[in-house]
Design goal:
By secondary structure, this protein is an alpha/beta fold. 40% of the residues lie in helices and 15% in strands. It has two domains: 259 residues, Rossmann fold, CATH 3.40.50; 90 residues, formyl-coa transferase, domain 3 (2-Layer Sandwich). The strands form three sheets. Strands 6-5-4-1-2-3-12 form a seven-stranded mixed β-sheet, with helices on both faces. A three-stranded antiparallel β-sheet has the order 7-8-9. A two-stranded antiparallel ribbon has the order 10-11.
């Protein structure tokens, strides 16, 4: 964690991945993020994966460093408290993050009547208000039909990473800061709507794939080959599988030198009237000749010897590993200052990441565990809404608020 956003208060009413991710990123940069949930937990409170005691590792991973307020949102009085919290006064308050529907008790127009300069960042499924999840967006974009080997034909391949959720969450955090900056300069609040489907199709367009499809048709499957560059998985003599990339001229020349392929590559260049030295696209176009060369050379070398040589030559490569190997890697996790081993809300202890950014001039603070549901209910009601202990006690008695 860092203190860059110290003093900023964001009220988050959300669930699942995208919206909690945005709140997580803001919290990791120092904002006070108050997550508001239904008493007993929202729809994502018990999602898999889970710890042995049934606590959601997913929920505590996405809510690290936040405060938790548990309200009875099925009661008008509980909804009133959430609205009051979202629109509470203060230059660095009045910032509301949600994936609740556009209409209803958390509509921006309704909340803005209480605070005109309110900033609402609302994550949506479809721009028209229709539902969408990461996997339905991904399927609609056509990504599963160009993922995997050509032999699959028209059979789709879903990947396990919720990429569109994560991109949407990061964009929502950025949008919150942009709208807050605008309000500081102009005094104007606003609602920013970020549909998951729009993030997906806009990203595809930004990568040139929308134009590519319109001009050339659907991209075929290339298996593990990287489109438009030299890149694929290869086996070493001791059965290790490595991902080899050669995008820059230095990476390509280094790979050719390490594998002793200069003469063979030169012969292909002469025969085909091309030069692979500076054009990554040509390396892809002529992969039918280049891949077998690299495959045969890799199969003659052991992984440990190859790794040292590839590193020395400035090549770009990476091993294929199971996730249980990755989580014990000293570069990625065990020796990485991004991680600290702490006890989480579930009672389990494991390495937990803080901010993914590194700021050399600033002190990196250890990540904070996720809250227990309702852990900060009394504190938030007292500090943000000015309620005294008697008023808070009465809310508990009525079942409108709950503690941990």
């Amino acid at each position: 964690m860092y203190r860059l956003l110290a003093g900023m208060r964001v009220v988050e009413a959300s669930s699942f991945v995208a919206s909690p991710t945005a709140g997580l990123y803001l919290a990791q940069m120092g904002a006070e993020v108050i997550r508001v949930d239904q008493i007993g937990g929202g729809p994502d409170y018990r999602r898999w994966p889970k710890a042995g005691n049934g606590a959601s590792l997913y929920w505590e991973g996405l809510n690290k460093g936040k405060k938790s307020l548990a309200l009875n949102l099925s009661d008008p009085a509980g909804r009133e408290m959430l609205a009051a919290l979202a629109t509470a006064p203060g230059d660095k308050a009045g910032l509301f993050l949600t994936n609740f529907p556009v209409d209803g008790f958390l509509s921006h127009s309704r909340l803005a009547r209480r605070r005109a300069d309110l900033v609402t960042v609302r994550i949506m499924g479809q721009a028209d208000g229709g539902p969408a999840l990461d996997y339905t967006v991904n399927s609609a974009l056509g990504i599963p039909l160009i993922t995997g080997p050509e032999s699959l034909g028209d059979e789709p391949v879903n990947h396990v990473l919720p990429a569109w959720d994560l991109l949407t969450g990061a964009y929502a955090a950025f949008a919150m800061l942009a709208a807050h900056h605008h309000r500081a300069a102009t005094g104007e609040g606003q609602e920013v709507r970020i549909p998951l489907a729009d993030v997906g199709i806009a990203t595809i367009a930004n990568l040139g794939q929308l134009a590519e499809t319109l001009l050339s048709g659907d991209r075929p499957r290339y298996g593990n080959a990287v489109f438009g560059a030299f890149g694929r998985d290869f086996l070493t003599a001791d059965g290790r599988r490595l991902m080899i990339m050669a995008i820059t001229p230095r990476q390509w020349r280094g790979l050719v030198d390490v594998l002793g392929l200069a003469e063979a590559v030169a012969a292909i260049e002469t025969a085909r009237g091309v030069s692979f030295d500076t054009d990554e696209g040509l390396r892809f176009e002529h992969r039918d000749a280049l891949f077998p060369l690299v495959e045969a050379a890799m199969a003659q070398r052991r992984c440990d010897e190859l790794a040292a040589a590839l590193d020395a030559a400035g090549c770009c490569w990476g091993p294929y590993r199971a996730m249980h190997e990755a989580v014990r890697d000293p570069v990625l996790v065990t020796g990485n200052p991004v991680f600290s081993e702490i006890e989480q809300a579930s009672g389990t202890r494991y390495p937990v990441p803080g901010a993914m950014a590194t700021i050399p001039q600033a002190e990196r603070l250890a990540p904070q565990r996720a809250p227990r549901l309702g852990e900060h209910s009394d504190q938030v009601l007292a500090e943000c809404l000015g309620l005294d202990s008697g008023q808070i006690g009465a809310l508990h008695d009525k079942g409108l608020v709950a503690g941990a």
